[in-house]
Structure formats: structure tokens, C-alpha cells
Amino acid sequence: MVSPLARQRRQLLEKHANQSASELISGADTESLHIKLLGFEEDRKCLKQLNAIEDRVKHKREVLVPKYKPYVEAYLEKGEVFENPIFTNMVIWLFDVNEMDTAIDWCMKAIEMDLSTPEKFRRDWPTVCADAVLEWAEKESVRGHSIEPYFGQVFEKVDKEWRLHEKVQAKWYRFAGLHLILNEQGQPQPTAIGDLETLEKALVLLQHAHDKYE
């Protein structure tokens, strides 16, 4: 099986082989990216050596994200579309470190570019985004923090655009419905909500969740 690194190098070589000399800024560009990918693979190996999830998240936040974010920003700025393991893994890492704004934005770009999720990921990008944002929203809600604008931004996709597994959709509808009827202690309590429209909206969402589970 061809590794993502080998596949990426072959793709780059084929691309540049079809260009004229005048179109190439430097023949070193391909080698430069190949070297970057080699270093990236080494960083991933080091990351896997950390046993504790907390340590891995900290390493991503403090070392890997700052290291590779400028490269990904430059890659996106160029507007070129090709399978890029650094970019796709960075999307996952950004979700892991709760940089939700950039994570969601880059995930949407990955969807637009029709890129594959990282190797060994069985979920597609919409599912990755839906799972990550819902997990984040659940934690923030328990802490009494706002879940907007990120929850609403992704819920719009879950509700109207993305074709997700029914259980994933059901979790979103259930959380959205219950979140509308939280009391001051952060617990679902319909009697604490005085607005009839809000109660009706919550009921519709919870019914959607029930229907998806059937």
C-alpha cells in the first residue's frame, strides 16, 4: 500500500513534470515540500510516543500547531488543490486543541477541495466536524459558556446540507433541543422556560432526534 507521503511526492513530481521551465519558479520547490513532509512524519512519530492524551494535546497546542500553521496558511493562500497530509492532519489537531474558528474554517475548505481525511480515519470531513464541534459544545455548555457561533454554524450544515449517519444527526438534534430548555443551573427544565416559541422549537428538535434513532 502506498503511503500518503509517497503518494504526495509522486503527485508533485508528475505535476511539475508537465510544466514548462518558465512556469517553474524553482526546481527546488518540490524537494522543499518533500523535505517538509519528511519532517512532518518524524514529528508525528514523536507525537505517538506520548502515552497520555493530555500530553499529546499539549504537544499539539504548544509545538506542532505553531510549527505547521504558517505552512498551511501559505498552502491555502496559493489556492492549489492536492492531497496534503500536513493540511489534513492540522485540521484534526486544531479540533483537538479547541481552536474552533480555524478548525471549522479549514475543515470547510477541505470539504470544498474534496480532500481525503488523514490516513486510517474512517470518517469523512462532515462527520469529523460534526463530532468534534458537538463534543466541544457539550463541554462548554456544562461549564456555562456560550457555544456560539460555532455550534450554530455547524448545526446549519448538519440540519440542511450534510448527509450524516442518523445517530450523528440525532445527537445534534437532541443536544440542540435540550440546550434551549436549560435552567440557570445548566439542567434541562421545560418549566423554567417562559417563552412558548422556544419550547415548541425544542420539542420539534427533540422529536427529530427521536425520529432519527428509530
Explain how this protein is built:
There is one protein chain. The protein has 214 residues and is an all-alpha fold. The chain has a domain of 109 residues. The chain is 69% helix and 0% strand. Helix 3 crosses helix 4 and helix 4 packs antiparallel against helix 5. The protein is elongated and about 60 Å long.
Q: Could you give a quick summary of the protein structure above?
A:
It is built from 9 helices and no strands. With 214 residues, the chain is an all-alpha fold. The chain has a domain at 4-16 and 26-121.
What is the rounded Rg? Answer: 21 Å
Q: DSSP strand (E) fraction? A: under 5%
Assign an overall shape.
elongated
Count helical runs.
9
Q: Main traits of this protein?
A:
about 210 residues; mainly alpha; 9 helices; about 70% helix; elongated
Topology:
Blueprint: H1 4-17, H2 28-48, H3 53-78, H4 85-96, H5 100-112, H6 125-142, H7 150-160, H8 166-180, H9 196-213
Helix pairs in contact: 1-2, 3-4, 4-5, 5-6, 6-7, 6-8, 8-9
